[in-house]
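Anyone able to model this chain together with magnesium ion?
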Amino acid sequence: MQVRAEPLDLELATPFRISRGVQRVARNLLLEVAHDGLIGQGEAAPDGGGYYGEKRETMLAALPYLIERLGDDPLCLEDITAGMDQALHHGHGALKAALDMALHDLVGKLLGQPVYRFLGLNRARTPVSSYTIAIDTPEAMAAKARAAVDYPILKVKVGMPDDLANLRAIREVSRATLRVDANAAWTAKEAIRCIDALAEYDIEFVEQPVAADDLDGLRLVREHTRVPIFADESCVTPSDIARVAGRVDGINIKLAKCGGLRNAVKMVHAAHALDLEVMLGCMIGSSLSIAAAAHLSPLVEYADLDGGLLLADDPFHGVRFDRGKLVLPDGPGLGVAQRDLPRRSPSARRAEKAEKIPKET
Ligand code: MG
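re: yes, here you go
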């Protein structure tokens, strides 16, 4: 198998602010695995703030260690996953996920079947994805909620002093189901107080109220609030499931955290066995990485797979949304195709936009 990597710079339509920072461009990596005349594609979409320790430079440096473990049979996915986790024991989830999704794309193309089919899943059972409203002024967040009228579930980023005003402004213009995500912003005490106040706006669940390693805090918040609590930053790989079980109501699985579809499937089954609900989430990425997660989505209760919707230009297409419900592509592999967009860096694009502005003479 031959592997090729190239940078994939994705500009966001508007800056994406969460409680720990703001992201304007996703510096992702496109990987292609070639075998037997076919090419599988995958996308490494690390967390924008480097929270999980991955950047483009770390991914390019680590890639050769994973390529060594690929072997020559792309269908030996279990061996390859285990080999990648042995080669790089901790972290590198986004990079491993990119290779894993490229292999799934390749295997689907070799078999002539969409990924969801060879995973044995029913495309009619996909969940409705939420659409994320990032942190901004109350007026701007309300305007985004109003514009997202096609999405019946909104995920609102919280963890700022203006949370209540933000939620109130959104509720005034939207009857959507609202979930909130604090991205580890609060102490357990703050979380209990804030969630009690936010509950007035009819919240479906709260994601990651406290720091990732504050497992007792998660339990405390769950015991003292009436809104279900989901773990995201506290639940990264399969070995984290048992640690959060009994402390939260559900978990957010992301391919870029756990290293790909196979580890994600293991996490879904472990979570369900331990009475946890499951959401499939994403980082900021194109429809390529979104499609990989979407193919697994018939297995889970909730989805937050809006990464491609937040981009200025999505370079891939394939996954569609019907009133938020994920519609899986039916082509072989991941079923996505590259759009005919000229590849330009964000700075080149800004320069191009500036050129288009008529100059006064
Ligand atoms: Mg989250």
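Residues 181, 183, 207-208, 232, 252 surround magnesium ion (CB under 6 Å).
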